[in-house]
Design brief:
The protein is of the alpha/beta class and 150 residues long. It has one helix at 5-32; strands spanning 44-47, 54-57, 62-69, 76-79, 88-98, 109-117, 121-130, 141-149. Strands 1-3-6-5 form a 4-stranded mixed β-sheet, with no helix packed on it. Strands 2-8-7-4 form a 4-stranded mixed β-sheet, with no helix packed on it.
């Protein structure tokens, strides 16, 4: 039985379309699983679970503080003191990812604060969960992590 040339072309296009669709789905799935904002795969991400702990990073590596809150109330996570640029350079990016984007119906959002490690050294990052115009109070939630750049 002889195939028609038009049918062979259709099969090639169909196979190419399936491959293209599979590639797109793979890329989209991978992108949805990562932290937002172009954070590199080798970044060190610190969460509330590491509060009071320590973390190690290498010079040039990104350090990301990931904490949840509710900005609708006016509260945000703020650094108590900006770290020395000799050790950690804030990249100027603060991002929020809503739980709606994470398939949740709550008002809680995740705040990402990013730094790039510079030269070797040690420091402590401290953050307060505050209304910026009010500042810290006795009941203010606090977060700290010791950072070792090696």
């Amino acid at each position: 039985m002889r195939r028609l040339p038009a049918f062979d072309s259709f099969l090639r296009v169909h196979q190419f379309g399936k491959s293209l669709l599979l590639g797109f789905v793979l890329i989209a799935t991978t992108a949805c699983q990562s932290t937002p904002g172009g954070i590199p795969a080798n970044a060190v991400v610190v969460t509330a679970a590491q509060n009071g702990g320590a973390v190690s990073v290498k010079p040039g590596q990104m350090l990301v503080i990931e904490l949840s809150g509710n900005p609708e109330t006016g509260y945000v996570w703020q650094l108590v003191q900006t770290p020395s640029a000799q050790y950690l350079l804030p990249d100027g990016t603060k991002q929020f990812q809503s739980d709606a984007a994470r398939a949740s119906a709550s008002q809680i959002e995740t705040q990402y604060i990013r730094f790039v490690a510079q030269e070797t050294g040690e420091l402590t990052l401290e953050l307060n969960y505050v209304i910026p115009s009010v500042g810290p109070q006795a009941e203010t939630r606090r977060f700290s992590v010791d950072v070792v750049i090696e």
